[in-house]
Amino acid sequence: MSDPTVLTIVLNYKTAQMTLEATAAARTAMEGLPGEIVIVDNDSQDGSFDIISSHIETAGWDRTRVIQSPVNGGYGAGNNVGIRAGLSDGSRPDYVYILNSDAFPQPNAIKLLYEHMQAHPTTGFAGSYIHGEAGDRHTSTFRFPSLYSEIEGAIRFGPVTRMLRKYRVPVESIDETAPVDWLAGASLMMRQDVLDQIGLFDETFFLYFEETDLCRRARKAGYEIIFVRESIVMHLGSVSTGMKTWTKTPAYWFDSRFHYFSKNHGRAYAILATLLHLICGGLHWIRCKLTGKDRGVSPSFLRTLASHDFIALFRPKTPQIGE
């Protein structure tokens, strides 16, 4: 009986050179593991597909190919293209590993996730410890968003944070392999059987909340989401999205947030979450005005949240492609 196979997916959007560097690191980390790497160009329209194809051919990279998505449907949709493509012989892999185009696994990072999945059949998804260029830890372990987390995240007040600490979305204190609610998708291995059961990424999410939703579905189906501390990946972060330089939160973030809450809890819950965020965010705004502190959010954030979700409340439900 042959060993289980891994399909590694690297999603490219206008970062061809960095994608090739991430793929080179993934190739090293895939040594000794049965499987392949597929790079999905997410309709970059900047020559990325030709650049990547030429490099793969010139460098003689075996077990590596690039495919073109006909449209840029976002992060989840792009990864779904790779998942649906499967292995080059048309067969399905046993595990799917998604790696950001600006993420660089250590030589044993993928193998450690693979071995954990092999040893623990109840693990649906397993993810890595993520750090930045300077070695700074990136938060990659999280709780599911809730009404309480909306209060804590919006009010930004120490006593409230301490009171609601078990509801905070970021989980920053884990330093050993352990189950969590959901994991960042920068380095995430998924059991193909689980995806067959729960569906792929919901393509209604263009960007953000798609991993949260997918992990939630896996948890509801009875599988564990495991943070594997020994698997280490360096992540630059937000290279394709430009999040680090945002001066205004884009509309797709608000779309994703509202869709996540309304899909998983109902529209009434989504509106209540927004009302709580607006009230607590308003209190935070008043406190910052009185103290002269920086709010830490864009000036128009609360206004945009209110107007966006009011309009979204009356918008017809979007068909969920990918599940």
Short description:
The protein has 323 residues and is α/β, with parallel strands linked by helices.
Structure description:
- The chain is of the alpha/beta class and 323 residues long.
- 41% of the residues lie in helices and 20% in strands.
- Strands 1, 2, 3, 4, 5, 6, 7, 9, 11 and 12 form a ten-stranded mixed beta sheet that branches. A two-stranded antiparallel ribbon has the order 8-10.
- Helix 1 (16-29) runs parallel beside helix 2, helix 9 (251-265) crosses helix 10 and helix 10 (267-291) runs antiparallel to helix 11 (301-313).
- The longest helix is centred in the C-terminal third of the chain and has 25 residues, at 267-291.
- The chain starts with 5 loop residues before the first strand and ends in a 10-residue tail after the last helix.
- The model has no long low-confidence stretch (mean pLDDT 94).
Secondary-structure element order, as H and E? EHEHEHEEHEEEHHEEEHHEHHH
Question: In terms of per-residue confidence, which ranges show pLDDT below 50 for 5 or more consecutive residues?
Answer: none
| Overall outline | globular
Indicate the percent of residues in helices.
40-55%
Note the total helix count: 11
Mean pLDDT comes to 94
Quaternary structure type:
single chain
Task: Give the radius of gyration.
Answer: 20 Å
Q: Characterize the biggest β-sheet.
A: 10 strands, mixed
Distance between the termini: 31 Å
Report the count of strand segments. Answer: 12
